[in-house]
Amino acid sequence: MKLLEERIQRDGVVKEGNVLKVDSFLNHQMDIAFLEEIGKEFKRRFEGEKITKILTIEASGIGIACITARYFQVPVLFAKKTQTKNIAGEVYTSKVESFTHGKVYDIIVSRQFLDSGDRVLIIDDFLANGKALMGLFDIVTQAGASLAGAGIVIEKGFQPGGQMIRDMGIRLESLAIIESMDEQTGCTFRK
Amino acid sequence: MKLLEERIQRDGVVKEGNVLKVDSFLNHQMDIAFLEEIGKEFKRRFEGEKITKILTIEASGIGIACITARYFQVPVLFAKKTQTKNIAGEVYTSKVESFTHGKVYDIIVSRQFLDSGDRVLIIDDFLANGKALMGLFDIVTQAGASLAGAGIVIEKGFQPGGQMIRDMGIRLESLAIIESMDEQTGCTFRK
Questions:
Q1: B120 pairs with which residues across the strands?
Q2: Mean pLDDT of all residues in A38-54
Q3: Is A113 in the B-facing interface, judged by CB distances under 8 Å?
Q4: Chain B residues lying within 8 Å of A105, measured CB to CB
Q5: Is the CB of B28 inside 8 Å of chain A's CB atoms?
Q6: Share of residues in chain A with pLDDT > 70 (%)
Q7: Do A59 and B80 touch (CB under 8 A)?
Q8: Closest-CA residue in chain B for A19?
Q9: Within 10 Å of residue A183's Cβ, how many Cβ atoms?
């Protein structure tokens, strides 16, 4: 997605340790008009797919998923990262290892909101090692729901997650795939 | 907001300990068409106010804030609950005591996204004891920004947060104010 690549070049900041900061428009401050373009692009790519629910993970996936859901006219469900007393007792759960935070955490989704009648589109901001996506896929599987695919805003193509997901036969649509990144010269994108 | 009160009556579940579960449409699974009605109502209530940014707090405020921001055509900024290596070093920070989780946590916002030129609308799903709102207000104050007010979806009117915020002279618009709630009979609303 040309518009996204240009925005990453303009406003993204590459930091030591393969960190790409896009928090001025995507995952801390959010440019809503820009997210609408992202939502439209996901809709275009998954056009014709019957989708009943968008599944994402807190926190930075939620805004993208909600704006995207407008174009699919389906509800959004977000996986929570810790158990709270506000969630129903009956949950699907999976474990996710976080690249960003360097720890393992549980994700949970209430059983009542996902079942075998659902066809799910997973939406998230980043794909690097694929751990969050695998956790969400695990929950879709536990629910007996079917997966239409995963829509990712930025894939770090030099990390193994994307290849792993594609090798599993899961349809993966990444709007920008970063081939390499450098603190001085910025990002290069897969053609 | 009549539509919201009806939805709470229909789909909300009152649990022991003054817990109101609205996770079927508001803060776990999210009904996006319904959130659009909420966004329009916030816009109607704050019509004529010059607002440059919507501030919320992860995780359950984000979806509501993003959909609401479409009507104000401003960016959303969400306060993060833990420090991660993906956030800029220069942050505003405040402490918040959570009613839901029963603990104190830090919230942080990057300085680069909020300054004295901003006029902020705070959006959140619930107001009970007002701790999250006070933390966000503290961050707005640290930034030297001005506050247009706070838009809350559901205020628990029998807890002290709403009164405290109003006594401070902050404009508070709660779309539903619960006067009392009961596991058998459900919610009654302030007229």
A1: B53, B147
A2: 98
A3: yes
A4: none
A5: yes
A6: 95
A7: yes
A8: B86
A9: 10
Cβ within 8 Å, pair B110-A76: no
For chain B, what's the residue count?
191
| Number of neighbouring beta carbons within 10 Å of residue A6 | 11
Identify the pLDDT of residue B102: 75
Could you tell me the pTM of the whole model? Answer: 0.95
A23 → closest Cβ in B36, B69, B86? B86
Length of chain A, please? 191
- Reported as a single tens digit per residue, the pLDDT across A65-109 is 999 999 999 999 999 997 555 555 689 999 998 766 678 889 999
The β-bridge partners of A181 are A187
Record: contact A73-B33, CB cut-off 8 A: yes
Torsion of Cα atoms, A18 then A24 then A25 then A28, to 10° = 80
Residue-range domains of chain A with CATH = 2-184 (3.40.50.2020)
Q: DSSP state, A27?
A: S
Pairing of strands A29-30, B76-79: antiparallel
- Tell me which chain B residues have a C-beta less than 8 angstroms from the C-beta of A93: none
Please state, in angstroms and rounded to a whole number, the distance separating the CA atoms of residues B64 and B62. 6
- Shortest CA distance to A136 belongs to which of A178, A181, A101, A168? A168
CB contact under 8 A, A88 and B21: yes
What rounded mean pLDDT belongs to chain A? Answer: 94
Do the Cβ atoms of A62 and B62 come within 8 Å? yes
Quick one: pLDDT at residue B85?
53
Tell which residue, A162, A58, A181, A38, has the closest CA to residue B60.
A58
H or E stretch at A186: strand A186-189
Residue A98's pLDDT is 78
pLDDT in tens, B73-96: 999 999 999 755 555 568 999 999
Mutate to test the interface with A, among B32, B64, B90 (most CBs of A within 10 A): B32
- A79 vs A94: CA distance, rounded Å: 10
Of A137, A123, A178, which is closest to residue A155 (Cα–Cα)? A178
